[in-house]
Amino acid sequence: YTTLGRVWCGGSIISDRWIITAAHCADELIGGVDVYVGALNRTDHNEAGQHIIFVSKKHIIVHENYDEIELTNDVALIKLPVPLEFTEFIQPVKLPNSDEANETFESETAIASGWGITSDDDYELADILRWIDAPVISNSECSSWIYGSIQSTNICIGTTEYKSTCHGDAGGPLVLAQDPTLIGVATFNIIYSCEIGGPAPFTRVTSYLDWIEAKTGVSNQ
């Protein structure tokens, strides 16, 4: 619930108490946020394993250097009021380890997921969680599409026509396919189209490992 009304974003469980998401999803919150865990069909509240947890704004940490104009440092942390019980439906994703801090992950296949809209003409979110797999591309290739917006703290995937992240997917995960490790948090989209096969940018998780550990105590040593 934000100053702009109700919005939807994704996030990733990194421990039994912490969720990582995008800063622009949390910066304008009024009272707090409903966190859905264990959900496949977000509209089916009787779904096995699905739980909705309200988190007050005071338990959400937006990166201190988040820039809402440039969308730099677009990362935030949500502290759950009680620990999650991990089940077949609810599991954390591991963070990169410190040895991977300078890894680009270029050419590796990664998976992005979310309930965002599925075409440029849509106004409604998807009911069922959707995902794509795509290669990680270099920041220079990404910058050729999104000039001036890609920083060293971003990571991008190359997408094909009609297969990309879109509005409503922000905050969601980018995970390595071969070794499920969280390498990105979905940030902005190419404003004029999600369907043209342009790159999809994410916040690069390895750039924030020290910050995450300082705020949460969570790391992958």
Helix fraction, binned, reads under 10%
Domain unit count: 2
CATH H-level superfamily of the largest domain = Trypsin-like serine proteases
Gyration radius, rounded:
16 Å
According to CATH, the fold-level topology of the largest domain is Thrombin, subunit H
Output mean pLDDT: 91
Largest sheet data: 6 strands, antiparallel, barrel
Series of H and E elements: EEHEEEEEEHEEEEH
Keywords: Disulfide bond, Hydrolase, Protease, Serine protease
Organism: Bactrocera dorsalis
Pfam families: Trypsin (PF00089)
Protein name: Brachyurin
Topology overview:
Layout lengths: L11 E2 L4 E4 L1 H4 L5 E6 L13 E6 L3 E3 L13 E4 L29 E6 L15 E8 L1 H5 L10 E4 L15 E4 L5 E5 L13 E5 L4 H8 L5
Antiparallel strand pairs: 1-2, 2-6, 3-4, 5-6, 7-8, 7-10, 8-9, 9-12, 10-11, 11-12
Structure description:
One of its GO terms (biological process) is proteolysis. 8% of the residues lie in helices and 26% in strands. It contains three helices and twelve strands. The model has no long low-confidence stretch (mean pLDDT 91).
Summarize the structure.
The chain has helices at 23-26, 139-143, 209-216; strands at 12-13, 18-21, 32-37, 51-56, 60-62, 76-79, 109-114, 130-137, 154-157, 173-176, 182-186, 200-204. With 221 residues, it is mostly beta strands.
What structural keywords apply?
2 domains; 221 residues; 3 helices; 12 strands; Thrombin, subunit H; 6-stranded antiparallel barrel; 4-stranded antiparallel β-sheet; mainly beta
